[in-house]
Each structure stands twice: as C-alpha cells, then as structure tokens.
Amino acid sequence: MATKHEQIIKYIDSLPVGEKISVRQIAKAMKVSEGTAYRAIKDSENKGYVSTIERVGTIRIERKKKENFEKLTFAEVVNIVEGQVLGGRRGLHKTLNKFVIGAMKLEAMMRYTGADNLLIVGNRTAAHSYAIEAGAAVLITGGFDTDEDVKKLADEMELPIISTSYDTFTVATMINRAIYDQLIKKEIVVVEDILTPLEKTIFLKPGDPVEQWYELNVETGHGRFPVVDQNGKVQGMITSKDIMGAERSAIIEKVMTRNPITVAGKTSVASAAQMMVWEGIEVLPVVDAHNHLEGMISRQDVLRALQVIQRQPQIGEKIDDIVTNQFMSSGEESKNTSLYKCEVTPRMTNHLGTISYGVFTTLIIEAANRYLRMQKKGDLVVENLTIFFIKPVQIESVIEIVPRLLEVGRKFGKIEVEVLNEGTVVGKALMMVQIIERS
After folding, report:
1. pLDDT (mean) for 3-20
2. Are 174 and 85 members of one domain?
3. Looking at residue 60, what is its pLDDT?
4. Are residues 351 and 293 in the same domain?
5. In the chain, N or C terminus with fewer CB closer than 10 Å?
6. What is the pLDDT of residues 130-143, one digit of tens each?
7. Exposure pattern of 46-81 as b/e (b: 16+ CB <10 Å)?
C-alpha cells in the first residue's frame, strides 16, 4: 500500500497543469498536517511536477522529458531573472520556444515575435500589447511596469508578463546560461533513464519459500531477485549463493542477504557503474527516498548506457571538456606506453599563472583512460591516485603526458604517468584502477 507521502505526490501529479497549489490546500484535501504537505510539495518540485515562484506561489507544471530539457518554462524564467509577475499567471507553466530581444522598431520587432516566444523589451507599452496579441509572453527589463489594459489582456490570453530589474543584456546572458546548464544536465544519463520499471521487475516476498526462487530461475534465467515486503520496501536480495544448501521449503527471509546495496533514480550511471565494480555486484535495486522499490538495473544496462554516452556528441561544454579538448595525440604509441601533448591555456591555471592541481589531475586521468581504451581494456575507475608535483608549469607551456602500464589484470590495473615540459619531468603519478570491461 502506498504511503501518505506517495499518495500526496500522486494527487499533485493528477492536478491540471497551470493550477496554483498551496501547503494549506494540499493539507486540507489529503487530510494531513501542513508539515507533511510541505515535504510532499518540495519532493514534487524535485521531481519536476511543480515550480515555486517568489511572490506568486507554487504552480503545477508539465514535467519535461529529457529531450526537451533545453526548453525553459516561463516559471523557470521568473526564477532565473528574479522577476515579478505582472499578469498572465495561469500561463507560467508554458514552455517558451525562443526569446526575442526587442531592440528594433516596432514593425520589425513584431515580424520576429510569434506564438510561444518571449519578447525581452524595455518600457515600450505598445510592444507589450502587440506581443501578447501575437501569442508571446513579455519580459520587461529595467524594473518597469506596464498598462493595466495589457495586464488584463495577458490574463485573458494566459501569457505571462514578467518584470525584472536587470538590463536586457544581463537578462539574455542569464537565460542563455540557464539553457546551457540544462544542456549539460541533458547529457548526464541517470539511473532512472535506463532502469527496468517496477511493473517489469520480478521480485520475491520475505515469506515466500526458496522453491519460488527455483521456479523464477527456470522461468527467467536470472539468479538474483530483490525481496520486497507488502509495503513495497526492499528488505534484501536473494541469489544462488544465498540458497545454496537451503531446504526448498525454507523461507526466503531466513536465507536472503539483508540490507542490500541500493541506488536512487537520480544517481548518475557513472556512479552506479563504480558502485557495481567496487562491490562486485551484477544488479542493483532502484529505490525512492523511503526505500520503496522503483525498478532494477543490471551491469549490462550500465555498460550499454556508458557506450551510448561515449558515442554522443557533446552539447554543453564542461570544465573537463575545456581541459581535455587541448589534448593532442603524438602518434607515439606502443603496447606499454603512449604519449599525449597538451597546451596550458589561461583557463587551466591558478591565480599564480601555473597549471592548477585539479587540471593536472584531470589530464593525468584522461591520458590513462585514453591509453586503456586504445588498448581495448575498457574504461577505468580510479581507486587510488598519488601525484607528485616536481616543478610548476606556467601558462602557454606545452606539456607531454606519458602513461605507462605497469601491471594489468582482467579487473585491476596499475598505471604510472609521467608529465614533461621541454624534456624535463614536472610531475609524476601512480594510479591504481579498476577496469570496467566492455561487453
């Protein structure tokens, strides 16, 4: 049976998009305390069901799919620009397709302004009115207001009019930055993107006999199943190792592994992969904040996802991308070593103008990873890293990074990395890694 918290979230999810909700309203509708209602609303916000706006309140929004992550809702725009909603509150849940900067004559401006657009403009009341009539929302910069007639029209059309104290250039930069951050989030594959959902997950109950495990093993070919109680909470895992020597009439609860390792839906696939490799496990139950089973992921699911990530082009450039984009392969490669070159750019330095420790670490790990991939060994998970800075490396230097394989097995490896500048050793590292083999 679902908990009260889950029932409230389900109720919020069932509300029509655009509806305004409050703690008091939810508490009254669901017959719970305001504290319980507040926690459920915050959880719904984390799940993307609602958005809370200062001076407006909390509204039900449409949950965005991952492929539409780069599109912002007007509610998100309000929060980004620290704006005030002057009218059209019922349209805050809508998604904008593009924004238009109104720095031209009115006729020209209207040619570029259409439905689902956001017109960013200053104190030009005629432009506000024309934009709403064209089906676009309006963002007024400079902290200006608009006419009451325009606000009334915005309410009728359910198109927001937002006012912000920032200037047009700053607002455009803030929105661009927000879209860029969304693009980076879009690239990050999380567990909930690849899990086998609950309705397709096979599990056992604590009171089931071991005989039930044998039946499921024959039926599915799998040997690992989560054990879930009547409330849907994960109590353990049962594997072929657990049932060895047990009577078929024995109860699952007596032989299962208790307190199994679980993972949350928002955990990145990379973190799940690391967990599986380090713990030596093949499957992970996916649970919510209250330990209720939401699905399962297997090592094969994780490996397939990691391979897809590697094949996809980068959309949003991250710090690691900025660093590793400077990499140049020298072509000098052998079975036990390789050579990479990299120029130290201004963004890779600290306040002293020398290469920063974080960048140095990233370069070492990237060189080792590329070398292992070249050797078709798979991807690495760093278990232990010891770095020695011997000499500082100044800006605009070209360094050579030489990873050398000291020892490698099927799951573990030992790599030495030497960093040189103009033929002089400036740093060294010794890495102990675990290897994620490719299927």
Report:
1. 84
2. yes
3. 85
4. no
5. N
6. 999 999 999 999 99
7. eeebbbebeebebbbbeebeeeebbbbbbbbbbbbb
Find all residues with CB under 8 Å of 297, minimum gap 6, and list them. Answer: 191, 194, 195, 196, 263, 272, 283, 284, 286
Last residue of a domain, one of 143, 171, 186: 186
Look at residue 312 and tell me if it is in a domain: no
The enclosing domain of 13 has a CATH number of 1.10.10.10
- Asked if residue 376 and residue 347 are part of one domain, the reply reads yes
**Number of domains, the chain:** 4
Long-range contacts of 199-206 (CB under 8 A, 24+ apart): 200/295, 201/226, 201/293, 201/295, 201/296, 203/227, 203/228, 203/293, 204/228, 204/238, 204/252, 205/229, 205/230, 205/252, 206/235, 206/236, 206/251, 206/252, 206/253, 206/256
pLDDT above 90 as % of the chain:
33
- Do 202 and 236 touch, CB atoms closer than 8 A? no
CB atoms within 10 A of CB 230: 9
Take residue 435 and report the two structure tokens written for it: 């290897």
Determine the pLDDT at residue 61: 78
pLDDT attached to residue 407: 85
Residue 160 to residue 37: CA distance in whole angstroms: 28
Distance (Å) of CA 178 to CA 58, 76, 182, 257: 20, 9, 6, 44
Domain stop point among 23, 41, 60:
60
Closest CA to 373 of 313, 315, 306: 306
Predicted local confidence at residue 65, as pLDDT: 55
Q: What percent of the chain has pLDDT over 70?
A: 90
Task: For residue 324, give the CATH number of its domain.
Answer: 3.10.129.10
Q: How far is CA 136 from CA 55, 83, 87, 139, 147, in A?
A: 22, 17, 13, 10, 17
- Asked if 295 and 198 sit in the same domain, the reply is yes
